[in-house]
Amino acid sequence: VQLIESGGGLVQAGGSLRLSCAPSEHTASSSKYAMGWFRQAPSKEREFVAAISWSGLNTYYADSVKGRFTISREKANYTLFLQMNALKPEDTAVYSCAAEASSFDLDTGFPANFRSWGQGTRVTVSS
């Protein structure tokens, strides 16, 4: 499944952005797996940001964004969202969505081994 993100941009510290992610082709199987957001800052490894179960009832967050970011999904449109509030300069990164998680991380219990990825959308937070 090809994923397409949107909503990135430049924002001042303390501001908000809402990212969206949708598959280029709607497939029924896309909605049956957990989806998530990851980010990669310059010169850093990609890191987990948030994930949501296929039902939408379970959500998972990295400690660094807990309380500031909210992940949600529209199953009808196979669309994933990430509402980002109280943004900090350290949130600056390319944010990518991922779909079709095939397992769970043994340490954290979070969805893992995502099989589909988007190209990413850049988020820049100025101080």
Task: Name a few traits of the molecule.
127 residues; mainly beta; four-stranded antiparallel sheet; 11 strands; 0% helix; 53% strand; globular
Q: Could you explain the architecture of this structure?
A:
By secondary structure, the chain is mostly beta strands. 0% of the residues lie in helices and 53% in strands. It has no helices and 11 strands. It has strands at 3-6, 9-12, 17-23, 35-40, 47-52, 59-61, 69-74, 79-84, 93-104, 111-117, 121-126. The strands form 2 sheets. Strands 2, 4, 5, 6, 9, 10 and 11 form a 7-stranded mixed β-sheet that branches. Strands 1-3-8-7 form a 4-stranded antiparallel β-sheet, with no helix packed on it. The mean pLDDT is 92.
Task: Describe how the helices and strands are arranged.
Blueprint (H helix, E strand, L loop, with lengths): L2 E4 L2 E4 L4 E7 L11 E6 L6 E6 L6 E3 L7 E6 L4 E6 L8 E12 L6 E7 L3 E6 L1
Parallel strand pairs: 2-11
Antiparallel strand pairs: 1-3, 3-8, 4-5, 4-9, 5-6, 7-8, 9-10, 9-11
Instruction: Report Rg.
Output: 14 Å
- Low-pLDDT runs of 5+ residues are none
Overall mean pLDDT stands at 92
Helical content stands at under 10%
Instruction: Please describe the biggest sheet, giving its number of strands, its sense, and whether it closes into a barrel.
Output: 7 strands, mixed
Number of strands: 11
Describe, in short, the structure shown.
The chain is an all-beta fold and 127 residues long. The chain has strands spanning 3-6, 9-12, 17-23, 35-40, 47-52, 59-61, 69-74, 79-84, 93-104, 111-117, 121-126.
